[in-house]
Every structure is written in structure tokens, then in C-alpha cells.
Amino acid sequence: MSDDFTDLEIELKQLRPRALRPELTARLAAERPPTSRRPAVVVWLWPVLGAAAALAVFAASWRVFAPSETAQPPESTRAPAMAASPHQPRMVPAKATNLLYAASDDGIVRFADQTAARKVRLRYVDTITWRDPAGRASLQCTVPRDEVYFVPVVAY
Amino acid sequence: MNAERIKPAMPEENSHDFWSDWIRDNGPRLLLLARQWAGSAADAEDIVQDAFVRFWRHQRDLPGSRLALLATSIRRTAVDLARQRARREVRELVADEMLGPEPMFETRLEGAERAAEIERALRRLPPEQREVLVLKIWHDCTFDEIGRTVGCPPNTAASRYRYALEALRKHLKAPTPTPSAKTPSHV
Q1: What is B111-174's CATH number, 1.10.760.10, 1.10.10.10, 1.10.3720.10, 3.40.50.2000?
Q2: Residue A149 vs residues A18, A110, A152, B8, B63: alpha-carbon distances, Å
Q3: Residue among A5, A112, A155 minimizing CB distance to B15
């Protein structure tokens, strides 16, 4: 602004707005959102999702490949191809790998109780393979997974 | 292990400490902004509380400065309230009635008279000029930011600011120099 008003601006800036009354501060504290969302939810999200996905795939493969012991349709109603099949595939877990493809230091975090910890994130891809020992069929399930560790930090 | 010193971490954004500090630092100027339109200090406090609740529930993840978001929210609510009151009650309120009797600034013994004089002069300004003055002086906003907050072009904000300062100067006597300091020492 113009220099003509500099003195007035300085004088105005020296006035300090009134502090909040304790009653208002207390009202705001009561309305405040709950303290920090702990990252624990995130930590377990991928493993849980991964496990659920693996279970779903396994269950699906079981339904597809395992012989059903109940409600077998009569021989005459089966499809010709199925009837001609030499055996029913039975999938068994054959291989499981964990590939660590990234590791990162997400810095220092402070919990609600004021303890400090370093947040380390490891990113994996888990691959589980099922095979039919009698045939050539196989099934592979690949699931991303994050592991987050909180390493306690001590300041000297 | 090396005696590694870590920098003290800032409180997490959603933590109790973070908001306590933030409200202590910024609450007074947000309340001052609300006072420019609210009918009383109590109304201004309600407006500030509503704005914080709205921010925490719906606006926390919005991009941009949280101070600017809260200022815009407070200003909008306060203007709406003032318009409702004007329609309902009287068409024109004298400044003291509109702002309420409670002082807007911290008062200290030294320079209290000058502070009161400035506040009286401030109350005589139209609210459109007062809010620009508040945003410029006590929120350190640029005219662009003020324009976005009050919904006017930056040039208009600059003009209102200049008019406000001119009017204040007209209403105020020159500060009386004190023997102990050359600069005004009313705070």
C-alpha cells in the first residue's frame, strides 16, 4: 500500500485481536475430531485383503476342480466331454513366493501418547501356485501386500 | 547405535496438540473477522464454532490453506446472519449496535486510550471495508486472497482497503508521542 499509510498500518498491526474466551476454546475442543487415525488400519489392510483374495481363489478353484461328492448328476446327463475326461483334477499348493520390490522410510510419526517411531514400509508381491499332480493344470494367485513397521525411536 | 538426535516431530495434523496450538494461534483473528459482521461477540463465537465443525467434518481434505477455508466459511456465515438480521429487525444498524459493546482487541493499560480510539474509528467503517482491513492487517492476506475470500476482484479489495485507511485517518487524531518511545506503544 502507499507509503502515506505506513504509520497507520504499523499502528493497526500492533493491535492484537482478543484471544478466544476459555468457554469458546472448550466448545471447540469438544467438537474436535477424534485424535489421529492410527495407521494400524492401513497396516493390516493389504494382508487381510490378500488373504481374503487368496481364500476366495482357492475356494473357487476347489469348486471348479475338486470332485463333488454330493448331488452327482446321473451318468446319462453329464456332458460328453466331462464323461470322457480321464480324471478330475485335484489342485494342491505347489509353490509360494514373496517378492520384496520396494522398501521405504516414511519418516518419524508421533502417536497420541507422544511416543515417536520411525515408519518403515515394505512392499511385497505374494504369489501362490496350485498344481494338479495328475495333470497339467495349474492355478496362480498374485496378491500385493504392504508391511508397515513402527520402529521405536529414542532421542538422546 | 550412534547418539542420533532426531528433530522433534510436529504434532500430527489430527492430533489434540496440533489443533490446540492452531486454534490458539489463529482463533483470535478468525474471531475478529467474524466480529466484523456478527451482531455480537456471542454470535461471532457461534459462527467460529460452526465454521470449525464444518471444516472438521467436511473440509479437512480439501486442498488449500485451512486458514483461508475457515475465513471464507466464517465470512459467508456471518454475512448471511447479518443479512437475515437486517431483514428481520432493522434496516440500518449503527456500528456499535451491529458490532456489540465487547472490545475487539486486547487492551493493555499502556496505550489503552489510543487502542480504544482506533477501535471506535474502526467501528465507524462500513463492514465491507472493515473486513478487507481485517484480512489485510491481521490475516496478512494479499489482495488476490482477499478477493477470493470476500468474492470481489483484487482491485476492488485494494480500493476498499485504501478507503478504509483514509477513513480511519480522518477519524483518528495523530498519536500522541510518548516520552519513552517514538513509536506508538499502546499495546
Answers
A1: 1.10.10.10
A2: 45, 14, 9, 20, 29
A3: A112
**Whole-model pTM?**
0.54
Give chain A's largest Cα–Cα span: 104
Q: Which stretches of chain B score pLDDT less than 50?
A: 1-9, 91-92, 94-96, 180-187
**Interchain CB distance below 8 Å, A32 and B186:** no
At position B89, the amino acid (one-letter code) is: E
Residue B73: exposed, middle, or buried by beta-carbon count in 10 A (0-12, 13-18, 19+)? buried
- Residues of chain A contacting residue B172, judged by C-beta atoms under 8 Å apart: 8
pLDDT (tens digit per residue) in B105-150: 887 767 788 888 999 999 999 989 999 999 999 999 999 999 999 9
* Number of neighbouring beta carbons within 10 Å of residue B64: 10
Distance from CA of B56 to the nearest CA of A (A): 6
Q: Which residues of chain A are at the B interface, by a Cβ-Cβ cutoff of 8 Å?
A: 1-2, 5, 8-21, 23-25, 27-29, 31-37, 108-110, 112, 116, 153, 155-156
Q: Can you tell me the distance from the alpha carbon of B169 to that of A26, in angstroms, rounded to the nearest whole number?
A: 38
Where are the domain boundaries for CATH 1.10.10.10 in chain B? 111-174
Secondary structure (DSSP) of B131-187: HHHHHHHTS---HHHHHHHHTS-HHHHHHHHHHHHHHHHHHSPPPPPPSS-SS----
CA distance B131 to A143: 56
Contact A35 B16 (CB under 8 A): yes
pLDDT score, position B157:
95
The CA-atom distances, in angstroms, between B67 and each of A97, A114, B48, B64, B71 are: 49, 26, 12, 9, 6
Residues of chain A with Cβ-Cβ distance to B12 below 8 Å are 36, 109-110
Taking the C-alpha atoms of residue B88 and residue A1, their distance in angstroms, rounded to an integer, is 38
A103: enclosing H helix or E strand: strand A92-110
ipTM of the complex as predicted: 0.73
